[in-house]
Design brief:
Largest interface: A-B, 59 and 58 residues
CATH topology of the largest domain in chain A: Isopropylmalate Dehydrogenase
Largest sheet of chain A: 10 strands, mixed
Shape of chain A: globular
Helix content of chain A: 40-55%
CATH class of the largest domain in chain A: Alpha Beta
Number of strands of chain A: 14
Structural class of chain A: alpha/beta
Mean pLDDT of chain A: 97
Oligomer: homodimer
Number of domains of chain A: 2
Bound molecules: 3-isopropylmalic acid
Strand order of the largest sheet of chain A: 2-1-3-12-11-4-5-10-8-9
């Protein structure tokens, strides 16, 4: 099969982790006779530096012609003084909106080999396997009106959802839950305070009626922040609105042990968007310290979802487990006082995975 | 000294934990010759059941005449179908607004004796001592407009802050930080996306200029959800807007090991409001299973802040440490496989503390 992939490397460690993902994709393609065509495009700070905008028009237009978009990371401290609407992150939010994917899938898995990397005790994380479904195009991120009025010395943002927006993302989450062994869906909200959440809960309950085999529960976002740490194994699919998903899925990174390990896929729109969870980490950019596994696992999600290449996707995921079990560690997952670990840099980690897929 | 205290026991386990706090207060009063006068008043579901409203007018009026208000918890599943504005929680939000306290102080401490109760490894939590300063009267909780429009099938809430609101809570947080040994303040926002947060960060930086001895840092709420679990010891005072503080302070409960341990004090208004962090836990109400320590430590904060009774407050806090070190445990803090623990119920835990203060 052939896949045209927009490569949105972005800022900081983005380019180096994307490069390793490309190497792994090429290796997979060679073995299976698949061809991946890459279209490197600017986004984020790289877009601002070159064209004065975090989402150059060319980037958007060309991405829209691709089968999938693979993004590294955006953001750099040097843009901190800009308004949210002009920062690198605005490019990310804009391309999310334009591509139209509203369901951001974020797995959080406890790898046996990384049991010592989590601040959580092994007996708490062991076997945890969560799939977050984060709504990605609504809520406070995109709600209008939004303004910091410097005359009035007052700022506001709007959290807004339509029932249709909740319904479509809920349906994706239920579809996923229905196919998983536990068949459980936990919907997160703050229904005791927010009207948005009250509606969210109502719509989720409606959609739930179509999925009698899926067990549904509702949790408040504050309680959920605790439960995820005290009993992560009790969860299966977790459905959240945009900001709650941002916070809770990052928090759940501690189950795995490093944000650098975590992939994501955004589906439901014109072009699916694949991006690791981690940020651009400008402080370690270009030093070979970044963990490319998050992006490589993101590429695996792309092969599975956009390419239908389940075997190849699984092959990458298994290779990651093997490499971890063999003790190879980028700095973010290196534990002190644990024997049998081999410190590797970004490139070597990538090459080890290339050799295994 | 004499303190008139509005007793807002509320729902679920509220009445039983408040009773234990009263017993401890009385014991402290007897020793030191202080008198505490209690005014029991209805709030939350108890208010709805008796008067059809979660904040009966009598409750509000009488509380406003008191020196301090001590609240148990509100909320009951039987009201889940009501709109947010009619639920027990609306009574809590309304009394918070009417009393006017905008700075909610929430300590999160790692007790040595409870090291095994946290899902976090001992070496991560050891020595952690955080003070959250959560803005309590702004943001999504109170922002207008707010509505679930059932015709339009659309809901919205408003996150709104004025610079003055940020400034006054920031000042309280800096004042606290300036008096603590670490003198560090971490302000939490989502400035890469929200205008509210961009303004928040600007105002915090302005106030910071007045406190040259306090080290300031800004963290994004999603990253903070990780840092609190991976390196809680690196934080001292954490300043947040309302919802972020709700989520992160609950999350930080895992540092201590149980929400049942955590107190809070809300200051800056007409009457200070003291409430434990935990909810009403209707499932265990009336069974002697609730941990009264959160409420008893809340009473200690009240003695310190509203009564100026530092010695007495410290006495209660020390008694809690002693009781924990002697192995007494309510069900929420009982660990399996740990020797030397004595299971106790709500009342016995209260009595043990009464004997020690
Ligand atoms: C960079 C930022 C805008 C983004 C978000 O908040 O969605 C990031 O935190 C994420 O989770 O992908
Ligand atoms: C009960 C609820 C309204 C409340 C809040 O969200 O403020 C609670 O979670 C808290 O943290 O005190």
């Amino acid at each position: 099969m052939h896949l045209r992939i927009a490569l949105l490397a972005g800022d900081g460690i983005g380019p180096e982790v994307i490069q390793e993902a490309v190497n792994v994709l090429d290796a997979v393609g060679e073995v299976g006779g698949h061809t991946f065509e890459y279209m490197p495009l600017l986004i984020g700070g790289a877009g601002i530096d070159a064209h004065g905008t975090p989402l150059p028009n060319e980037t958007l237009q060309k991405t829209l012609t691709c089968d999938a978009a693979l993004l590294g990371a955006v953001g750099d401290n040097k843009f901190n003084k800009l308004a949210p609407s002009e920062r690198p992150e605005a490019g990310l939010l804009k391309i999310r909106a334009e591509l139209g994917g509203f369901a951001n899938l974020r797995p959080a898995i406890a790898y046996k080999a990384l049991a010592n990397n989590s601040p959580l005790r092994h007996e708490i994380t062991e076997g945890a396997d969560i799939m977050f479904v984060r709504e990605l195009l609504g809520g406070l991120y995109f709600g209008e009106p939004r303004l910091w009025d410097k005359q009035l010395r007052r700022a506001h943002n709007t959290m807004v959802y339509t029932q249709d927006e909740v319904e479509r993302v809920a349906r994706i989450a239920f579809d996923i839950a229905a196919k998983r062994p536990k068949k459980k869906l936990t919907s997160v909200d703050k229904a005791n305070v927010l009207e948005c959440s009250q509606m969210w809960r109502f719509v989720v309950d409606q959609v739930a009626n179509e999925y009698p085999n899926v067990t549904v529960e509702h949790q408040l976002v504050d309680s959920m922040a605790i439960h995820l740490m005290t009993r992560p194994r009790d969860f299966d699919v977790i459905l959240t609105e945009n900001l709650f998903g941002d916070i809770l899925s990052d928090e759940s990174g501690v189950i795995t042990g490093s944000l650098g390990m975590l992939p994501s896929a955004t589906v439901g729109g014109k072009v699916n968007l694949y991006e690791p969870i981690h940020g651009s980490a400008p402080d370690i950019a270009g030093q070979g310290k970044a963990n490319p596994i998050g992006t490589i696992l993101t590429a695996a999600m792309m092969l599975r979802i956009s390419g239908g290449l389940e075997t190849e996707a699984k092959g990458i995921e298994d290779a990651v487990v093997q490499v971890l079990e063999a003790g190879y560690r980028t700095p973010d997952i290196l534990s002190r006082n644990v024997d049998g670990q081999h410190a590797v840099d970004t490139q070597l980690m990538g090459r080890l995975l290339v050799d295994l897929v």
